[in-house]
Amino acid sequence: MIAAAAVVLIAWAAIASLLPGNSASGNGHILEPASPRTDAATGLSAEAEQDRYEAYMTRHAQQARPSIRIVIEAETFAATDGMEAEVLQQFEGATGPVVRTAESGAIHWDIDVPEDGLYNIGLRYYPEPGSSSPIERELTIDGQLPFEEAGRLVFSRVWRNEADTIERDARGNERRPAQVEQPQWQDAVLRDADGYYDEPFLFYLTKGSHRITLQSLREPLTVDYLLLYQEDAVPAYAEISAAYAEAGFETTSGVMVKVQGEDAALKSNPSLYPINDRTSPATEPYHVSKIRMNAIGGVNWKTPGQWLEWEFDIPEDGLYQFGVRYMQNTVRGVNVVRKMYIDGKVPFKEAEAVPFRYGGEWQLGMPGSGGEPYLFALTEGKHTVRLELTMGELSDTIRMVRSSIRRLNELYLKIVMITGSVPDPYRDYQLDSQIPDMERIFREESEALNRAADRMDEMVGGTSSSTTILRTTAYQLADLGDRSETIASRLKQFKDNVSSLGTWLLSVNEQPLTIDYLFSNRPTWRCRGRMPVSSGKCGMRRWPF
User: Span of the secretion signal (predicted)?
Assistant: First the structure.
């Protein structure tokens, strides 16, 4: 369907027609990741929140990560609480029995862990019909919540357009297609629902027996199995590129495959429907007077974990570049980030955080580094490309600011317990003696906010307009640390700045992105110093190399 309706193969020599230099379409550029993080940029406040995952990992950072894979079949559950768990012998192509869990109550599994260590936990699940909301669960180990973020784990559903083609009304305007759920088996690894951590959660388990519990918070869910294992490390692009070179691939010119954004085959939420854009006549398709559903995403695609997936029909084996025509005109001074999957897997480390920079107009970008686009090894046939919203490098900054807000709020409450909410500006409350660590906290959080602002500047490659409130508050905190006797007269300003930090945190958590189309160029490759195989190709091997 997509291959027939949306895929266009043209000579790469004609790429200029896709990359016009006029402002309506935007100039092409490389979507380069931020520079590597430094210790100073990622440092946190001295007093970490002990119930957060970050503190949990600090306590267990030196533990081993055993190369063990333990499958916990769902039907072996030990008990339930407030839930009627139903064992299904045959269900939607599963190879064995599965368990349907309700939208409330808890289900327990008893497991035997052979070795102390940190483990990833995976889940193979099938979303049951419900209220169409994302599925939420809480995970406990031996009756205890290991860290705060495990209290809300989110599992997405799968949606698609109801019809294969977009219908038009009597006046020739395209109608927004209805969205229908297309449930299917999915494999998920437990990770932060808010996107504040780049990597999946690790859980520390000692040798011996443990009880894992999934508490239903929202929506029913069918479980095939749980998995204790180690996530494979994703190789860096340099390693993948070296494999290309070893295989003897060189790039010259090629052809291109193109897919319209509104033709997304699957999506995580029903709100990710095709939308109409009239800001540029270069948006495809375009009509001067009629409504055309010619883009997707926008402000509906702003929450961590949301994803869109497209199908590409690749004409032949080879190395392909990837590009997007997009608009990011909402979050000023911040690069929004998407994680890129090819056929359900992240192809290399850098694809975990593809940045899309701010601009007032449509832009064309290709993931890459050093001014050169990345190359992706694809075989002939159908492939999928998924872009998932993630916070990327911004997650470190968000955690730093969140930690600062919590400490400053706690300090504010201590202060008002002594001064009241409207202190007398002419009275000496001797706060420095009544709250001995007050000045130290002011200075530490000033440094933390400055580090967060510096990191944001690094991410955008210049001065980010989003750092104003961070630097303003950091300056005030440093001054309060040096002149604590002025707190009584400046308490309201201090409170307002902390409130502004909370507003800033909410705003950067939203990462909208609008997509017009995606394209994939195949540079021609040839055998370097090798005898071609009978097909005339270099013996292209399937991924991974």
Answer: 1-16
120 with 230: CB under 8 angstroms? yes
Q: What single DSSP character describes residue 234? A: P
The residues with which 110 forms a beta bridge, in sequence order, are 211
Neighbours of 476 (CB within 10 A): 19
Report the predicted TM-score, pTM, of the whole model to 2 decimal places.
0.85
- For residue 260, what are the contacts with CB-CB under 8 A and spacing of at least 6? 6, 284, 285, 294, 516, 517
Q: Is the pLDDT of residue 13 over 70?
A: no
C-alpha–C-alpha distance, residues 433 and 538, integer Å: 76
Instruction: Please state the separation of Cα 246 from the chain's center in Å.
Output: 32
Going by C-alpha positions, the residue among 32, 16, 9 that lies closest to residue 366 is: 32
| pLDDT tens track for 265-294 | 999 999 999 999 999 999 999 999 999 999
Q: Which long-range contacts does 412-418 make (Cβ < 8 Å, 24+ apart)?
A: 412/494, 412/495, 412/498, 414/438, 415/487, 415/491, 416/491
Query: Helix (H, G, I), strand (E, B), or coil: what is residue 278?
Result: coil
> What distance in Å separates the CA atoms of residue 156 and residue 127, rounded to the nearest whole number?
8
